[in-house]
Amino acid sequence: MASSPSNMRQILCWRSLFRDFQNHKPQRRSLVTIQRGPVQKLDLPPDLPKQYWSQLPARLRPDQGKREIIIHKPIPSRAQTCKDPVSEVSSSQMALLDPTGARKRLFDYKNPEGVKVGDILHTTFKTGEPFSGVVMSIKSRGVDTSVLLRNHLTRIGTEMQVKVFSPLVQSMEVAQKALKRKRRARLYYLRKPKHDIGSVDKIVAQYLRQRALLMGGKAKGVGAGRLRPSKKK
Q1: What is the CA radius of gyration of the chain?
Q2: Domain of life of the organism in this record (predicted)?
């Protein structure tokens, strides 16, 4: 006898097929764990024969004494021995680069005869030609102290940043002091044509000639030779 369409739908329905599998769940056995207290360690018998000592671990052998734990002293912290490392490094570098302290006094703002903005400074180097110019600014930063000089070379404004404590700097001399104390700490307005003082080679040459006469030698430097007279036409 042919099955009805309703029975066909029930057989072909996926829910009816998986319904039997869901009802048959596998049986699970519960495992009961035996609760027990901590394991008690048994002490070795005091009269254990020596022939059995080799079978025991080294830490349980009666002939092995207790190992002493060596506690080393902590290494002293750098933060306690050297609380300000930057100042110590700068002071050591200062003693190496300026052992006499003359250059430090030259750029000390408390020194009335020191270098100020507006002065004309003559700087010589161990390698290369000397450079002279007007002091436009001074940056006091310990070992990294620098000064900005301005001069005219071949009618072109030239500026140079010179490290005061650099090992390449041989000497620094004040060729001319400013007539009046400047009201600014940085004379950047000298870059404008209205306030530019031009070349300072003649002033430096005159200073070098006067120094040579006082020391009894010949002047050396920028424009140190005699000025040639102009030829008459």
Answers
A1: 47
A2: Eukaryota
